[in-house]
Amino acid sequence: MPKIDFHALFDALPSPYMVLDRELRYVEVNQAYVDTLGRDRDTLLGQPIFEMFPDPGESGRLLRASFERVLQTGQPDTMALISYAIERPASEGGGMQMRYWSAVHTPLFGDDGQAAFIVQNTVDVTELQTLKQQASSEAPAPGETSLLQRVLEVQQANLSLLQETGELRDIFRQAPGFMAVLTGPDLTFTLANDAYQQLVGHRPVIGLPVDAALPEVRGQGFVGLLQSVMASREPFIGRAVGVSLQRTADGPPEERFVDFIYQPILGADGQAAGVFVEGSDVTDRVRAEQQQKLLLDELNHRVKNTLATVQSIAAQTLRTSPDPVAFKEAFESRLMALSSTHDLLTASSWRGADLRDILGAEFRPHGVERYKLEGPDLGLSPSQALALGLLFHELATNAAKYGALSSPEGCVKVNWTLADQRLVITWTEEKGPKVTAPTRKGFGSRLIERSLKGELGGEATLDYRQDGLHCQVILPLKPAA
User: Which of 27, 298, 427, 475 makes an SS bond possible with 458, Cβ 3.0 to 4.6 Å?
Assistant: First the structure.
């Protein structure tokens, strides 16, 4: 079969045809178009149509609006009747002559699936309009006026329908939830609103099958779900479903969470012709719920730990303070120390507490002249802060009862250093009364054994010297998170 010369075919078409690009510049015209308008082809090509044939009035506005609809929707647009003046040939006296046209504008698509060109085919219907004008002064031929009236009614109906369609498209495009229409057995994107485009990173999807437009979702089960909706003709509803999307050209896949429904679009034969996709991006809500659950789990963990600590304090205090009054005083004092450390941790959103602040909270009631702190700023983890807070409380309480803080001239020096991934804290009491080693283990000794050695992997030594207590704590370095 011989090949068809489509350029020659286009040029030989009997009615006027032209092709415009997206900037509404002439790309091609056929011979009938040149003959009708009386313009040279080379004069037209590359020129904007509204510069070659300006019309600032209603006709120009309607024609431009029709072109814009084609470019925006990718759908053909028909103008049943439009008046547009063209130049009268010089042989007929020159000047401008009003003509009436019926026009069809058809999109041609580019590689990105968007309308790249507009093909216009026009039919001169000036004689019908002339018949209408004559009808007011003389009897028209049977059927001529009614024919023209029907044409005008169709034109008006088309304009009303286009306005309604435009309003619906604006609602669809601006809807807060994402929406898309997939048609055919290969699930080709026909429509997608702004929210859907934002979800998928503003990629060109119109005119592409879903697995080609969104290749990263192939192995995530969504294409299979769409195909099952087509086959079963039953909708599918998803709640907080995770999907990995390539939202930027060079970026990594991003996890999003969506609520959605796949609704089959049924044709007149009852078979599924496509799928309507509608939903919303609920990523922020899901992540907030995940964070809330994490916080609740963490709070539950902390409450259990705190209750265990309180239980241990009560048991140890009761063991060393059989007298109810003494028990109450010691127990409340230790709870206040625990509370003070909790306050420091809460101020940092439980990320940790500074060692200097923990020591300051214990010494502050005795006056700044009674203690001296030396060492670098150091953040402790919550578990380290709680254990050391209780230990310092016991040391400060003993110093106030029996040691350096019980005498007017006494003072306590605490210094700490970091070396070999270890924290070394030295507690030294000076100018206090003579101290002697206790004959039985107290709360502080048990705290050292249980918390420092058992839970934190540290160690502590107590040296009851003639001039005051000397305590050294060595703790594996584990800064606050």
Answer: 475
